[in-house]
Amino acid sequence: MAISVFTFIAAIGAIFTKTIAKRVLERIGFRRLLTWNAFIGGAFLAANGFFEPSTPHWLIMLVLFVGGCFRSMQFTSLNAITYADVTNRDMSYATSLSSVSQPPRGKSRLGISTIESIAKR
Q1: 17, 39, 91, 120: which has the highest count of C-beta atoms within 10 A?
Q2: What are the Cα distances from residue 2, in Å, to 5, 6, 8, 61, 104?
Q3: Which candidate, 76, 116, 117, places its Cα nearest to that of 98?
């Protein structure tokens, strides 16, 4: 099976989560959701390390889909909480703060790739 199918499955999970994020946040609340979701999302990320060539493709796709859901919920919640108590007048300040507080994605990918290449040696 092509690797793009696996990537696509995680993206579908992320898109699906965007449709239910508001309702989940209203029901559970930011604090509880962010706390539990961090652990659950981390567990699904760790599960990727246990895949082997013999792992059934349906199981890999299920883990990637559900993991994509939890990662998307975490990022959506973190981005939403930035604006939770901001008035319309102060929205531009919150936008600036949000862009500064976002992790530098390119640098973190480079760091992860570097650690991974060192670990393989």
Answers
A1: 17
A2: 6, 7, 10, 12, 29
A3: 76
Residue 89 has pLDDT above 90, yes or no: no
Q: How many CB atoms lie within 10 A of CB 119?
A: 7
Residues 92 and 78 in one domain: no
Do 57 and 98 share a structural domain? Answer: no
Phi-psi region of 8 (alpha: psi -120 to 50; beta: other; left: phi over 0): alpha
- Are 73 and 33 in contact by the 8 Å Cβ rule? The answer is yes
- pLDDT tens sequence across 39-56: 999 999 999 999 998 999
Domain assignment of residue 68, given as a range = 3-82
Q: Based on the fold, state whether residues 94 and 68 are members of the same structural domain.
A: no
The full DSSP string for 68-83 is HHHHHHHHHHHHHHHT
For 14-25, how does the pLDDT look when each residue is reduced to its tens digit (9 = 90+)? Answer: 899 989 999 999
Q: Provide the whole-model pTM.
A: 0.70
Q: Do 110 and 61 fall into the same domain?
A: no
60 and 99 share one domain? no
